[in-house]
């Protein structure tokens, strides 16, 4: 029983230290992104990439953006009390908008050293693996 109590005590202490370290990281991120801290609406550049970001028809005949990334963005925005304006563009334009500051955020972008020169990245919120499937007779004609 003493071992169990000791284990719970250590677990609680380490949880508190972990929470403190998270708070410090959040404070640093806030300081680094001061330019957007006062904004009530952030511009999200997005490109069609199903099932993460895509258009759906609404009951009144209009379209709206939806998808797993969009739902995550909307949930976070609601939690922190900001609005999101969605601007659809191509993948290429999406990157230019982030780089130039014409957009505040985008989703589903893989970290590269080059991109880190002009954008901040969150911790990964999904993991993907890209694979190529080829019909067997065609595979023999390829050199890889």
TrEMBL record:
InterPro entries named in the record: Solute-binding_3/MltF_N (IPR001638)
Residue ranges of domain Solute-binding protein family 3/N-terminal in the record: 50-131
Keyword Signal attached: yes
Pfam annotation, one family: SBP_bac_3
Alphabetized SUPFAM superfamilies for the sequence: Periplasmic binding protein-like II (SSF53850)
Keyword set, alphabetical order: Signal
Keyword Signal part of the UniProt annotation: yes
Protein name: Solute-binding protein family 3/N-terminal domain-containing protein
The organism of origin for this protein: Rickettsia felis (strain ATCC VR-1525 / URRWXCal2)
